[in-house]
């Protein structure tokens, strides 16, 4: 019993244990409900899973099931980011502990009972517990904002290498605070439409109403909530990666004000879709996205320069080839920054191109094609965020040698293969007619299946290894359980 207690303490009190539990829960959910997808239906797997597990899936309730499924995954991702923030950014121990407890209980409650309500009959007590879980997560977000309060004198910056005001206010901490605060507000932005269920508001998927000439304010709120929450998850992850890589110097001093400005303007643009600003809301969003993307670019430049300098430290005048080898020598440090760059080709660039040429090109296509672009756009962004977290986690748990290289390059190459194939699939009508599309469609969908399938295999191997390690009396988990987070050392100092 004592040994079980040690393991539970590791899993639910240490940073690495909490992240491992959240990744495992997301992986299990993805694996299980992925068996209900279209390709699995064609193979007969979907019907077998439904019958074996006793699921109740009414076609008319499909949209509601998908919304709960995606929300439970998103809550676990937000929990992972919260664990990393509390590990990397100094705050009072009360807020650190309270935030972790609340968000852990919250996302697990929402996930377990939300999915139970959506897929195994409508036990309304389960739905109530799902809402309780979301409420706990929201309250954890409020406490996180308080814990991150950047005007606390205890967190003034004295090192000139980091961005700060004349009075010493840490601008990176301000960026964390602004992102956390707007995430909490944007959660309300999505919760308000949910409060109107059974009162003239019906469940829908954003991609299904995109061509409706008139939309209600609540529909706009749901669409805005979807966009801004994904964007804020990406922005917060960018700040986390910067903290991990010790982002500093002149680029840091330029990037942090840009990130703060971009976050605030981006949110104002999205919130504006339900106000008289709606006609120009997209222009405000573009204005906000630009400085945030520039800040991310500066992080990429800093990180890659750091990798090159470290890898060529003993070379007086390194050649281009030596610099490239130095840049690529560690996939777990190179990968997150590369994924941010690659995202511009598969997400940001595609989104901007579609928006600019919407009426001239894409609204001339059948609505199904535009719907494919929208769903692919959101899914690729979500999946890129997931790969960055996995790469960071690999470094966090100390993978070394050939295992580190295989794990890192496997995630990078196979995921990017899938994302590139999805991008081609989204925009295929630009290069091939509907009558001649089938060979291209067959090829890119096969590449998507291979790429994502291999990423899932890598993740499965990682989780199996971690599970086996938990059965060892003195496994790696015992070392991780006793490690101190950087934020705790900062507060003690």
TrEMBL record:
Name of protein: Cytochrome oxidase subunit I profile domain-containing protein
Sequence intervals crossing the membrane: 20-41, 67-89, 101-122, 128-149, 174-198, 218-242, 254-274, 280-304, 337-356, 376-394, 406-425, 445-468
Keywords noted in UniProt: Membrane, Transmembrane, Transmembrane helix
